[in-house]
Each structure stands twice: as C-alpha cells, then as structure tokens.
Design a protein that fits this description.
2 copies of one chain form a homodimer.
Chain A: E1 9-13, H1 17-29, E2 34-38, H2 51-55, H3 62-65, H4 70-77, E3 80-82, E4 85-91, E5 96-101, E6 107-111, E7 114-117, E8 121-123, E9 136-138, H5 142-154, E10 159-163, H6 167-178, E11 182-187, H7 202-210, E12 214-217, E13 221-226, E14 232-236, E15 241-244, E16 246-249, E17 253-255, H8 258-263, E18 273-274, E19 286-288, E20 293-296, E21 303-304, H9 309-323, E22 337-341, E23 344-350, H10 353-358, E24 364-368, E25 383-389, E26 396-403, H11 407-419, H12 424-429, H13 444-456, E27 462-463, E28 474-477, H14 481-485, E29 493-494, H15 500-507, E30 514-517, H16 522-533, E31 538-541, H17 544-553
Parallel strand pairs in A: 1-2, 1-7, 2-3, 7-19, 9-16, 10-11, 10-16, 11-12, 18-20, 27-31, 28-29, 28-30, 30-31
Antiparallel strand pairs in A: 4-5, 5-6, 8-17, 13-14, 14-15, 20-21, 22-23, 23-26, 24-25, 25-26
Helix pairs in contact in A: 1-9
Chain lengths: ~550, ~550
C-alpha cells in the first residue's frame, strides 16, 4: 500500500516548540508529504524553558534538554531535519527559500508548497554602551547556556548582575543564588513580573532580598564597562554602580521577523507576524507559529506578542492541520504564565488590572489571602489571590496568585473557568478536591467567587485601597483591639466584630458611608452584613489590612503612618 | 435603627459543616431572625475531616479542630448554640421540636418557622458478633478521637486492624503507621477507594504494602472476639484470623434520618432525606442539608448519598437563602473526592466507569501516565490519569488520577471543565501554567484531551485492555526490542516504531485489525497514524503496556503470561 495523505512539500523554519510540533503533526496527517525542518542552530526541539536550570547543573546535562534529535525525527516521523542551516530569504512568488549551510557555507534554493515560519524570538538588546563586552550574555539557546557555564567556570564567578525581572531574569537569579553567586537584580519597572499588578509583588520582593539578592527596582542600565581584570561595571541611570563578573540580559524578547519581511508578509502593530486563526499569514502559502507571531488575547481582543510554549505548540499543530486541508482554528491566548523562585510561585492568567484600566474595560476585583490548605492541619501557607471580573455579569477576566504552595492549581482552575466563559458564580459553586492536605471545604477559588458574588449581589459591596478610597468615610477596623494596636490604617476607629452589634447605635454615625476592614476580609464581611442589615451604608475592603499593606508597600498609597 | 431582614425563627439541628454554614448564612441575610443551633454533642463546627490526623498528634490539639465555639457564634453572629441538646422529635403540623438537654435531662418544646435538619451521617455498624467489644471504635466526632487516643495510650497499642479501605480507613491506616503501629487493613472489595475503577488502584495497593501494612482485600469481618488480656481477635469470612489491640471501623456511613422519619418527611431510595434543588424536604417548612440528604449527581442524574464537606456547606447556604426568601438553587454534586496516603494522592471527579456501565451510559476512556512536570527537570513523578467522556460529542464525564504530585490539580482542572459542560476538545486547548517545576507545555490535561480528541476524530481510534480485546487481531508492540524483552503481552509481535515504516509492507498483514501498544501510548499513537495513513486498520491501546499491567494486576485480564 502506498502511504496516504496530502502529497505536499512543507518547509518549516525553526525547530523548537512551534516548528517541531508542526512538523510532527504534519507527518501524523500525511505520510505522503515531504517535510523538511530547518534550524540555524545545532539543535532542534530543545526545552529552552529549562536553560536557567541547566546553567546551575540542576539539570545535569544538555541531553536532557533535547526532546528529539534529528535522528529521532528521521526514524520516528520520517522528517528531514537540517540543522545549522539558515534560511536567508523567501521568494513568496516563486515559492522557494534560499538556504545557507552554516558548516560548508554552501547556499541553495529549496522549493515549497507550504512554508511555516517558526523563527521564535530573540533577546532584546537595547543600545547600551558596553553591551557587547565579554561576560555579558543572553540566554535563549543551548549554546548560550554553554557559554555562560564556561565563563562562570573560567572566571570563578562569585558575583552576577541580572538585568530584567521577568521569567528568565528571576529564574537566572534563583539559579545563581543556588550556585552561591551573589546577585544584583536590576529591573526598570518598580516591580518584577510585569504580567502581575504591583500590589501582588511586595512579598516576592521581600523574598528575593531575604535570599541575599540586591534588588534594584525602577532603574535601568545606562552603561557597561569592562575592567582590565575582565570584571564588569554596570552603571544605572539612577547613578548606581555595581561590580560583577558576569551580566545576564533578561529584559525581554522581540519577535524574529527578518524572514517574514523578506517574504513581504504583513506584520502587526506590535511588530510580530500577523496571522489569522488558522495561523496563516497574509501570504496564502505561508504560515507562522510561536513567539514570532502576534496572537489575539481572548479577554481583551488585543493582539499581543506573548512568548509561551503552550500556545506555540498549539499553533504548530493548527498550522499543520490547515496546510494538510483540515479545518482547525486557534482560539487565541489567555496569557497563563507562571514562575517559581525561592520557594514561592508567581502565576497569572487572563487580563491584569493595568491592562483593563488602559483599555477602559469594565471590571471589579477581589483580593484574598487564604491558606493553601485548611488551617487546622499544620503547614498551611498563605497565598495572595486576586481575581478580576466583570461586575455586571460576573464573567471572569483574570487572576493572579502569589504564595508558596498550591498557586499553580488555583490559576489553572481559574484559567479553565475563563476558557469556558465562567463567572464568579461558577467559582462559588466549584466542587474541588478537599482533604486536609489539599485544600478546604471552601477552596480559595470558592472563596474568591463568594466574595465577588456577594459584592455583585449587593450583599457586601467591596471597597478597594487607593489614595482617596477612605476620605470622607467612617473607617472601621473590626479586628480585636490587640490586632489594632499592632498596626492599623491611620484614622480608623476600632470596634471589634464581637462588640459591633452593641456598639452600632451609639458609636457608628448614621448617614455616612462606612468602610470596614479586618485582617484579610472575612470578619469585615460579617460586619458589613450586620451593618447593612441595620441600615448602614457599609462596604468591606477587599483583602483587609493585608491588602492595605501590600498596596502600601507597592507605593500605591500615600506614605501615611 | 432596628435590625433588618426577615423576622423568622429558624431552628437548625446539627452543628457541623452544613448546619453551621446554614446558621451563619441565615444571620448574614437577616439580623432580625432568631436562629438557634442544636447539637447533641459537645462541639459544633468542628473539622471531622481532620480527626485521623488528630489521633496521631499530627494535629496537636482538639482546639485546632474547632472552627467556631458556641461563644464565637454568639459574639460574631448573634446565633444561639445549644450543645448537648438532642432534638428528639419533630411535630411538623404544629411546627415545634422536642429537645432534651443531655446534661440536665430536662425536656422542652421549641417552636419554629423554619426547621433545618443537618444531622449528618453515622458510621455503619453491620451485625458482626463482637462489634461492641471494648477497643472497637468508629471515628466521626472529637470524642471518638479522644476515646481512641486514650485506648492507644492505656493499652500501649502496637497493632491495629482497620476495617474498610475508604477515606477514613486509609487515613487511619496512614496515621497508625505514622505512629509506629502495625496495621492490617481489611476491605470487602478487591480494591481500596471504591469511587475509582479497579485498574487505577494496583499501585496504591503496592504502596500500602510497601509501608508495612498487611492488606486483606475481598474479604469481610465475620466476628470480633475480646481476649482475656483485652486484645482483640478478628476473624474474616475468608477464614483469616488477625490479632490486634484496637479495631477501627471505617466501612462507610449511613444518613441519619430518625428525626426526618419522626417528622414524616420523604426519604429517597438510597435511604437519605429527599430534598429539592432549594434543599427543601417534602414538608414546606423543613429543609435538610449535608450528609443526611440524597443529592443529585450532575453527570448521571441519579440521587446519591455522598458525605462531602464542600457540598454540605453549599447546601447550608442555599437552605438559608431560601428560608430567608431568596431564590438560590443547588446545582447537584459531581462527586469530587481526594485522599492522600503514604505520599500518594488518589482523586476523582464525576462518574466512574463502573457507574457508566451500570447505567448503560455511552462513554469512552483514555488512560495516560505522564509526569507531573517535564521530564527534563529532575524529580518528575508519574501519574496515572483516566478520563471518561462521551465519544459522540467529547463531553467530559469523569476523571480519576493516582500519583505522588500534581494529582489534585489535574482533577480540579477537569472538575472545573465538567462543571462548565466542557469537552475533551476544551482540555486539548486548555492554557495551563507551564514552567519546568509545574507542568509541561502539554500538560497531562492537554494530553488527555488530545488522545481522546484524536480518537473521536478517527485519527487514532483507541483500543482498551480487556479479556477479549486482542483476540483475532494482530497485536503489535512498537517499543524497542530491549523493552519488549523485559516484558510484553503474550502473542504480541515486536516491530519498533523506528523500523515500522520499512517493515510495514513485509511484516504486517493487510486486511486484519492491527492493535498497537507501546509503553504508555505515545509511540503507539505515532505508529497508529503511520499505519492508518498506509491503509491499515490500526488502533492504539490507551495507556500502553503500563495500563495493561494495571489492568492485569487488578485482576481484570486473564492471568496470561
């Protein structure tokens, strides 16, 4: 029997997540297709998400990072992989590409029926004097990690500067600390992990500093200088000066679009390749997948460049489907992301508050800080969870979570709910795993849903900490006096929940908005209900004093008290 | 201002999860209501899920288990709690209950506008001779745990028999082992954790035995005898005889319905109180919540008695809402459950295969065994995941998972998808957290969705291990020869994936069904695609040789080879 499926010739440029997935999927749909995968590097299908852990030997060898070799592609999938082969240009009219063999220097043309661009993203390199100095590295490929490892070994590196507090920057910081290297982390924003809102990060900043890292926020590198001893000096715009033996750049990536430009295909406003929901570019014979593309955010409808492995893999499969005549479409991205560092986890899905504000989208939010499992079993770790939703219908818009345990689970639950158009009412009713080690009869996700639903229903409208939220209101702290004494919001009156009912008539002014808070929001909720049922116009500060502290540390409140 | 809300008198019988939630919620809706909570025990609102961990001192004191005292109910919620007060009977016509103060012996009547029955469930006590012997305990209340602790201390207990391999039985087994007590675990079924299907359990059975527990499955206790030295002898129907110093009964619970019967309200076929979706019983003034009730399973539509804390709490709130004139309804249960033991986790949601078979519901299934995170980072632990779905539209029907890490997360993700009517196609596209420590670019949930979707689309139809699934077929093992040598299914032919294409024409018979398997299903999938595209009628064994081993160990296959 002859092998079946569409007889077509598919060239794929770039052999990591999206490109490799596309190649393998194409073969699974057609045995008759000719499939060639080009990569200018020496490896395909490697796990670049593991590179920071390779630098520190947490991952013991390069082989572990290589998910499939060219031989395996040949043996398992009958796919021809040409490594160290750079595709130089595309002739979209005549449908061929120009390829250079980087080993021999030979150049040749290769024709295609369908071309898939999966060139990925490249580290951003801002025009900083000295950026090309020896000892300054980005980390995107296996050779990058090898150069870094060699430099560390040869120079007996004990001090490092990491520029950028995103995923790579944080993971490199952690791995350096793990290696006993002293780190200065410089980030241009006033927070690490830009996908989250500022008030979610103070505890992460504290943890980073507790582990001995010098954290330099809201400052950018202005100059790098090499010393005679091969050491490096980094100067910042803020006038700081740091010495180190190595500098890692982790300030983000840009989509690689040179080839797309040579093919004359359309780019989007964010500079990535514009693709439709079939992953097809403006040229009908050219597809594109992965980090080089702009993809539609399902919450905001905006196009964004979002370098994430999961969506890249999905796009690879969808491009292959459509090339082979199957109809399948990409539902867009919801920006689920996660980073683990120093025994903490930072994760998010959907839109953040900054984005919703920028787009002037309707939203409300809840803050809560439950334990990752029931408090009665030893070892419960608090998490800070923020959920954003549409206050009209409760539709979930996004969530952020920071903590030591169970963070990924809660974001994945909410991610799944968002995917299905879920609401805070769905979270309220979610039936999640409960045994003492794993959660609570009211899981943090249930609690988030309840708090939001109580607000939407008008039972316990929420207040939020911001510069003027508690002016002209009666600010009521319902914690016990001892808690109040240990710290409170300036101007707050302390009437504990336990004596609220008796004090209500004499100590709480009628006809004035009452803003209630407690430690994390629960007693404030009970107090708010009692007050509202007694005719007071009360609202409850979401997240209570803990949220206040987080907002204040993030610099989002007046530096009062 | 006078306190607002509905002026009604609510009596609640039973003060644990459902009853306590109902009381607190009722107060939050009405400050004007009179709310009295009765419990015949000495405690309300205690965490009975924590009791096994209290026995072993993992939870250090009783106080930790008490979530709210009568004083706190009074102070925070203005709710009157009457402990040690047994409600003896209900006069539903005249709307009052008869109460006995168990301390004084006094009896009195208390009238109500609305009555909520939350009496919970009681341990099953089958008619076994000697069941009342000193040293035989159930574990449902704080006093139960105190009796057990005292007995252990006084008798210097070193040997125990646990009867029943459900949640309580397994948790008690683990806690006994933690205390250095040697355990025999006797279970009537051929598996522990009845909510899961049999093939999911062999690795759990092995783990239990590895930790030194004598596991006696498929046998039941016929007789218990006390020895002169206060030791106990347990005899089984299978003719076994075990000595021990303590016996714990964990063979399940029955809904407590004596009071419901005295009120003349309707019970369901399973013996629980029948309630509607407002948690109202057949008497318009009587509501019921929690373990005493039958609730509707949202997958099967069947009514079931399911003692779970989460649904009990939800019902408590819903009953309170409706009593207070709010319309809210209970969506039913989906039977999400979890148990941790010996560093393993066993969890499930939705319907299992046994139930789907019994109800003759249409379903298909996938088995897979991915790591809890990427394999390239050290420490990945395999999990066995089973997902059940409707093969016509892909609708998710249930999931089961067993492993060491990340099990609760996957079940919660699928639980959330089920709640929203999700399909295997949704799982395929789910955008979940991925960094090396937390999952994979293709999370186990994504993989489950892909395998099922590939089967539904006809790309790679699945085969399943059962007694006759591989008769009259060409059974093809596509693993490498060395793997084949270490163990394979009797009658299988070994042609590894790497040489499949060259061997296809000469070694594989045309016109005969080809059943393919590999280690866990992935290479089998690639082989199945290649075969089908070349005209063969191939199917892939879901879960591969690992699933075969699990089925065989569970006794579901002929004891071949």
């Amino acid at each position: 029997m002859a092998p079946g499926g569409v007889k077509t010739k598919v060239l794929i440029v770039g052999g990591v997540a999206g490109g490799a997935s596309c190649a393998a999927r194409a073969r699974r749909i057609s045995e008759a297709a000719e499939i060639i995968l080009f990569d200018k590097g020496g490896f395909v299908s490697f796990a670049n998400c593991g590179l920071p852990y390779r630098v520190s030997d947490v991952i013991a060898d390069d082989k572990s990072l290589i998910l499939a070799s060219p031989e395996l592609f040949k043996n398992r999938f009958n796919i021809e992989v040409r490594i160290q082969s750079e595709v130089l240009s595309v002739d979209a009219t005549r449908k061929f590409v120009r390829v250079r063999n980087l080993v021999t220097g030979n150049e040749y043309d290769e024709s295609y029926d369908a071309l898939v661009l999966a060139p990925g993203a490249a580290p951003l390199r801002p025009p900083i004097p000295g950026l090309d100095s020896p000892g300054v590295f980005a980390l995107r490929t296996i050779p990058d990690s090898q150069y870094i490892r060699s430099w560390i070994a040869e120079h007996n590196v004990k001090t490092a500067i990491v520029v950028g507090g995103g995923f790579i920057g944080l993971e490199m910081t952690e791995n350096f600390v793990h290696m006993g290297i002293k780190v200065v982390l410089i980030e241009g924003l006033k927070q690490v992990m830009a996908p989250l809102d500022a008030e979610m990060l103070p505890r992460v900043h504290e943890r980073i500093q507790e582990r001995g890292v010098e954290l330099c926020l809201g400052d950018i590198v202005s100059r790098i200088e090499q010393q005679p001893d091969e050491g490096l000096v980094v100067e910042t715009k803020g006038g700081k000066r740091f010495d180190a033996q190595i500098v890692i750049l982790g300030i983000g990536v840009r989509p690689v679009t040179e080839l797309a430009k040579s093919a004359g295909i359309e780019l989007g406003a964010r500079g990535g390749i514009r693709i439709d929901d079939r992953c097809r570019t403006s040229d009908p014979n050219i597809w594109a997948v992965g980090d080089a593309c702009e993809t539609k955010d399902i919450i905001t409808g905006e196009f964004a460049v979002l370098p994430l492995a999961g969506p890249a893999n999905r796009q690879g499969r969808i491009a292959a489907d459509n090339i082979m005549g199957r109809s399948s479409s990409f539902r867009g991205v919801q920006a689920t992301a996660i980073c683990g560092l120093f025994d903490m986890t930072v994760a998010c899905t959907g839109a953040n508050e900054k984005t919703l504000q920028r787009l002037n989208m309707r939203y409300d939010k809840v803050h809560l800080s439950p334990g990752h499992h029931v408090g009665y079993l030893p070892g419960a770790k608090p998490m800070d969870l923020k959920v954003l939703y549409d206050p009209h219908d409760g539709k979930l818009l996004g969530a952020q979570c920071v903590g030591e345990e169970g963070v990924d689970k809660r974001i994945d639950i909410i991610s799944t709910a968002i995917q299905k158009g879920g609401t805070v009412f769905d979270l309220e009713e979610a039936e999640l795993c409960y045994a003492p080690q794993f959660g609570a009869a009211k899981d943090p996700c249930n609690m988030a849903g309840m708090i939001a639903a109580n607000s939407i229903r008008g039972d316990a409208p929420l207040a939020h900490w911001n510069l003027d939220s508690y002016m002209n209101s009666f600010l009521l702290d319902v914690r016990e006096p001892a808690e109040f004494e240990r710290g409170h919001v300036e101007g707050a009156i302390n009437i504990s929940l336990t004596r609220l009912r008796e004090a209500m008539e004499s100590e709480i002014p009628a006809g004035q908005p009452i803003l209630v808070y407690c430690a994390v929001g629960q007693r404030g909720y009970y107090a708010t209900r009692a007050l509202r049922l007694s005719g007071f116009n009360a609202r409850n500060f979401s997240g209570g004093f803990r949220a206040y502290t987080n907002y204040k540390k993030a610099g989002l409140l007046a530096p009062a008290q």
